[in-house]
Structure formats: C-alpha cells, structure tokens
Amino acid sequence: VTEPRGIARRLPEGARDSLPTEAEELRQIESALRRELDAYGYREVATPVLEYADVLEGAIDQGLGDAFRLFDASGRVMVLRPDITVPVSRLVATRLAEHPGPVRAFYFGRAFRPPPPGAPQAAEVRQAGAELVGASGPAADAELIALLHRSLTGAGIGDLTIAVGDIALTEAVLDGLGVPRETRVLLGRALAARNLVEWQRIAAGLPLPAAAGDLLGRLPALRGGPEILERVCAVAPAAESVCDTTGELLDLLGRAGIGADVMLDVGIARDWPYYSGLVLEAHSPLVGAPLAAGGRYDLLAERFGAPRPSVGFAIDLDVLHRALALQGGNGAGSAPGVVLVGGLDAHLELAGRLRGLGVRVAGVAADHPDPSALARADGWARVLVVRDDRLIVSDLDGTRLADCASAEEVVRWLA
Amino acid sequence: VAGLRVCVPRGALFEGSLERLRAAGFDVSPLEDVGRKLIFRSPDDTLFITTRPTDVPTYVQAGAADVGIVGKDVLRERDPDVYEMADLRFGECRMVYATGADHDPTRDALDRLGSVRVATKYTRVARDYFERTGRQVELVKVNGSVELAPLVDLADGIVDLVATGTTLRENGLVAREEIFESSARLIANRVSHKVRAAEIDALAARLTGAP
After folding, report:
1. Which residues lie below 8 Å from residue A113, measured CB to CB, with a gap of 6+?
2. Helix or strand or coil: residue A332?
3. Which residues touch A1 (CB under 8 Å, ≥6 apart)?
4. pLDDT per residue over A213-260, tens digit each?
5. What is the pLDDT of residues B185-205, one digit of tens each?
6. How far apart are alpha carbons B101 and B169 in whole angstroms?
7. A372 vs B: CB within 8 A
C-alpha cells in the first residue's frame, strides 16, 4: 500500500469511485431492471446532467433547494440536476407534446446533491426511474406500483414492502375536521420532519371532539391494510371519496398478486414538494433507507406548458445494491474468465476464438513473468498456456487441471 | 425474524431508560452490572444495544437499531432522518442561554463588538437560535465543562442543557433565555417504522404506558 499523500488524492465530499466488481454488479442490476421496464412497454430516455437552474427552479414552488450550481459563459446559472423527475417531466412536456399518451418512460442516471456538512452522504445518487405520463386514477397508480414491485423482485430482492399513501387523504381529513390553515402549515412541517411528537402536540391543542382529536393525533402513524380507510371515514366522512380511490388501488394491487407486499401508510412524507396524490416508498428490512420512492405529481407538467397527470418512481441503485449484497447470494456471478499467456502476441488467433465462444480472455505477453498474479487481481480462477500445440489449463497455484486439444474443449473445462 | 433492536443511551438518560424498560416488563439487569454488557438479547428476543447518547441517532438512522431512546437535545443538534415517535416524559430539562449572574455581557458585546461569543457543545442549536433571534454569534465548540468558559473569558455566555440549575448556580451563572424544553424521546428508523410497524407500535405503547 502506498502512503497516501493527502489532499492530492482526495475526492470531493460525498464523491466516490466504483471498482470493477461493484461496477459489474451494478451493470447486472441495471440489466435486470431494464428487462422488467421493457416488459411493461416503458421506453428509455435520457436528459442532460447540466440544465439551466431557472428552468428546473420554475417547476417547483419552493425552488430546488440545495444543488450544485455553476455559470455558463454568458453568466447564466446552471445546475447539476438534483433530481431526475423534473427534467424527465420537462422532456415529456416539450419533446413528446404530440404523443397521444400515455407516455411510458424510464431512465438511468445520476442526481447530484451537496451533502450537508458533517453528514457522510453521497453527493451523487445513481437512480433508475419510471414515469407514466398522461394517465390518472387508481389503475395508472397500480400499474406503476406493480412495475416497481416487479423491477425490485426481478433484480433479486426477496423481502419487499411497498408503503403507499395519498397526500389527498391527509388533506381531506384536515378539511373535514376544519383544521385552520396556519395549523396545517405547522402540521405539514412536523410531518416533513417525521416528528410525530410535534404533530400530536399540535393536534392535541385543537378544539376537536374526542374521536376526531384521537384520529388526527394518530393519523400519520396509521399503517396497515384497508381497515384503516374505514377507520378514517368513520370519523371524517369528508375523506370518503379519497378513501374509495385508495381502497380501489389496494384492490387492484391485490388482484395483481402483490397485495401482501403492499401496506397503507397514511403519514408517508416525501422529500420533494411536487407530489399531489399517491406517494410511495419501497423498503427492504435489510437496509435502513428506502430502496425507491415516488408518487403522483399531476401539476408538474403544467409548469412546462403541457399539463398531463403523471406518476413515477425512482430506485436508488446504491441502496438496492447494498440490500442485494446483504441478502447474500452469488453477486456478479461472472462469465468464465481466463488469463491467456501469449494472448497479447503469440496466440492472438486463439484469444479471438475463445472470445468468440463467450470466454473472457485477458491476454498477457508470452514472456509474462507472473500471469497468476494478474489472474488473482482480476478474479479469474484459471491460466491458459499453449505448449506444443496443446492448451494447458492451470489453477493459480500452477496445478495443471486439463490438457486440451481445442478451444471448445477449454470452454467446457472453464464452465 | 429476530426481535426488535433497541438502542439505549448510556449517560444521563441511562437510569431513566432502564427504569422505563423495567416498567414495560423487560428484564434489563445484564445492562446494569458494573462490567455491563454493551449488547444484550433479552429472553423475549429483544436486542438491547447501549451506546453514547449522541450515537443513538446514528445507529437508528443507519438501521443498526430499529428504535432508540434519545434526548430531544441530541435530536435538535443532530437532526437525524428518523421518526420521532413518542415523548417518553422523563429526563426533562431545558436548553438555555446562560451568562454571569452579576452581569450580562450580551448586549454590550453585540453593540460594541458586533457579535456575542458563546461556548457550547450544541453548535447547531446555538447557531440556529441566535440566527432566529437576529443576533450575530461567534461559537466556541467545547466538549465538556461548558460552565467554565465564561469564568475565564473564553466566551460571553454558554448554551447548554440544564436540569436543576445547580451547576449554573455553583459557577455564578444564570439562565437568561430558554431555547427549548428537552425530554427523552422514542425514535424509529424509517424502514423499520414500516416493515415492523406492529411490533414498534406495541413497544411504543409499552414504553409510554399507553393503552
């Protein structure tokens, strides 16, 4: 190990490199996700990493908040996209305005957020997301949730919980109970901070009948099945239509065969302010952060001049990867690989033939002093040497395993 | 599935936490012994993890513990991304701004020097408070015996947690402004709060003595 020389080798706060094993595992996760997204007829799009800050800013009432900002040559403020939903919404509204809809789009990309001081948080988040634009109602929400479920299980997640809620449900209850506007701001702030103690304190201070006060105090902590909806409606009849819609959604998810993995979570709070209806989070018990999050944002596309109801999710690929790694299993399960002595010079033709047969071949010169060391560093288990027209397969200790006459025979040995 | 993992703070809230856990029916005696264990699984399969108070949010946010007991002071200072589920109503104290009992140098410092110098362990709490009240502040981060700072002119005043006020009095200080009231809180990891909802709610009910 070389002695580190301090700042010269350091990365910015929250940034990190990916080495081959990690990169390969991620590639496999991505291809599994792509397969599932394809199967639902979603099509891939990409947006630039750099955008004008005012364009994205204009889409969100509260603004973008923390983001990396820089200037272009004319002095206009640019931003490293802190989120991909807004840019994709811009793309769909401007480039696909003539599309009859619904637009089914997915993306793989990185979002950038400056880590708060002192908090070891990634500045770059690798995401895979899907957006369904131009469709509303429980059926559209259900498709997106089913797609998320299938994507995560397709990537290999065994134990999955998808928590769903609806912003409109909380709003309807607050309407029904006649909670004044100023109080709602305070309640909203407590919920965003996940501070249920503060929520209960505010609720307890309102002049409400006992049953209503009790419901309001417990509202954000209600999680479970459809029985919650009955409980809410019994006390706050104003919420009935939202409860019906949510009930219908749960019903559809049950019919899609994923009801057991879905829970209703009334107090679910999302970090972005553009959500207007459904909100969701996907959880694995193995990791302490959500695998994915999303929801419905019917008012966002309007900001880009083409109002269309939209719903989407974004999977955090690093959290998903961590959950899969903790779950165990084989990881990258690499294709058979071999170090071919002479693969750089004397035996180019053999190297080509093996690669054509699907073997990963790392070539070294015929006079390479230590091909085993290279094999070890790259995770290959075998070294191939050509001696008197015979192809000799050895392990990394030099033990001869096979003496083959043809490339095909070598492939069988490596498999 | 194994039992819940509960993070318990060693320190000022330790005794109160154990008392509450005992009242809730847990046998936590292995945590009380002199050569006490850092980690202990109770017969009902609940796993107790003891850490420094300021580390409790770290364990819970990362999901190394499902729930934790922690002072509101630590939550305000660390602002972790966790659910603050319940006020356990013990370990009550106040976060205050205190200066010398015979003379409050705050006004003078602000008028003549433009800012007030404040020693504290709670730099985030202090910065937020002085910002909110429109006063410039120069913070001195200390890690213990905060009361000492004004006595040797390291700072004009201190921001610190006060239970009875005895320590302040003994050092010739007096609380000038109350910033917030603190008490022990039950916090939960974001994921555990969903995937183990029933168990966590049951534990919260046991700990708060709710029906």
Report:
1. A66, A67, A68, A82, A121, A123, A125
2. coil
3. none
4. 999 999 999 999 999 999 999 888 889 999 999 999 999 999 999 999
5. 999 999 999 999 999 999 999
6. 8
7. no
Q: Is the CB of B83 inside 8 Å of chain A's CB atoms? A: yes
Q: Cβ A196–B83 below 8 Å, yes or no?
A: yes
Would the CB atoms of A194 and B190 count as touching at under 8 Å? yes
Q: What is the CA radius of gyration of chain B?
A: 19
**Phi-psi category of B134—alpha, beta or left, where left has phi over 0 and alpha has psi -120 to 50?**
left
Task: Give the residue among A196, A201, A133, A136 at the shortest CA–CA distance from A166.
Answer: A136
- Which residues of chain A neighbour B201 with C-beta distances below 8 Å? 221
pLDDT above 70 as % of chain B: 98
Single-letter amino acid code for the residue at B49: I
Q: Which residues of A touch B191 (CB under 8 A)?
A: 283-285, 287-290
- Tokens coding B138: 């120069």
Joined tokens for residue A110: 């990185």
Nearest to A285 among B62, B83, B195 (CB): B195
| DSSP 8-state secondary structure symbol assigned to residue A67 | -
Chain B from 45 to 74: CB within 8 A of any A CB? 61-64
Question: What's this model's pTM, rounded to 2 decimal places?
Answer: 0.88
Q: Does the beta-carbon distance from B194 to A289 stay under 8 Å?
A: no
pLDDT at A270 over 70: no
- Give the pLDDT confidence of A379-400 residue by residue, as tens digits: 888 999 999 989 999 999 989 9
Model confidence at B14: pLDDT above 70: yes
Bridge-based pairing state of the strands A103-112 and A124-133: antiparallel
Residue B135 clears pLDDT 60, i.e. is over it: yes
Give the SS3 label for residue A65: coil
